Amino acid sequence: MKRFFSILALVAFTFALVSCGDDDNNEVRTWPETITDSKNYTFEILTSANADFSIPVTMKLEDFAQLGEWTGKVRNAEAKANSFIKIAGVSAGGYTFETLTLQVEGTNIKRVFKNVKEDGTFNTVDTDLDFLNSLAKRLGDRSEIVVKLSGKTDKEVNKNVKVSINLNVLFHMK
């Protein structure tokens, strides 16, 4: 009988010890394989005649509201075909920009517009969308990038000239 109680006490002690272990709350969290979202970034140009200008804009994954709590789960990103670059206010002001350059800071990722005399929307495959796709990929890799708009104009820009990047991105999740 003594042996039976000893074995029973040992089994009870073993169960008590095992049940007091860590309570792992290993919730299985599911998130989508892809998320699509868009964000518009705008550069406003105000500059004196024949002066070089450089305007930085910071782009962050957290700017894309649809990513929500999953910004850390982005594996890579790609710009969709409806992304575009828009230049506005040039025609109305009668301005001429010898060049307008959009460049991801610290990289060779850039898009150069030459002899800009009028407004326009740009999303051609080989130039604009390649640039926007490289920009989206870099953003997906780094979670934050700085894009600079630089250029020079022949006369003072005292009315808003705007260059916008409308980035519609397909995010692939880890």
Describe it for me?
This protein is an alpha+beta fold and 174 residues long. The chain has one domain: Jelly Rolls (Sandwich), CATH 2.60.120. It is 23% helix and 45% strand. The protein contains three helices and nine strands, in the order αββββαβββαββ. Strands 1, 3, 4, 7 and 9 form a five-stranded antiparallel β-sheet that branches. The protein has a four-stranded antiparallel β-sheet with strand order 2-8-5-6, with helices on one face. β5 and β6 form a beta hairpin. The mean pLDDT is 89.
User: How many DSSP-defined strands?
Assistant: 9
Order of SSEs: HEEEEHEEEHEE
Rg measurement, Å: 28 Å
The biggest beta sheet reads: 5 strands, antiparallel
Based on secondary structure, the structural category is alpha+beta
Instruction: Identify the CATH architecture.
Output: Sandwich
**Briefly, what CATH class?**
Mainly Beta
What average pLDDT do the residues reach?
89
Count of individual helical segments: 3
What best-fitting shape do the alpha-carbon axes yield? elongated
Q: Percent range for helical residues?
A: 10-25%
The CATH topology name reads: Jelly Rolls
What percent of residues are in strands? over 45%
Instruction: Show unreliable segments.
Output: none
- Overall number of domains: 1
